[in-house]
Amino acid sequence: MLYLASQSPRRRALLHQLRRPFRTVRSSHRETIRRGVPPSRNAIHNAAGKAIKARLLRNAKGIVIGADTFLYFQGRVIGKPRTMRQAERLLHALSGRSHWVHTGLCLREAQTGRMRTSVARTRVTFKRLTRETIRRLLDRMSPLDKAGGYAIQEDRGELIARIDGSRSNVMGLPLELLRRELAAFCNAQHRTRCVPCASRES
Question: Which end of the chain has fewer CB within 10 Å, C or N?
Answer without folding.
Answer: C
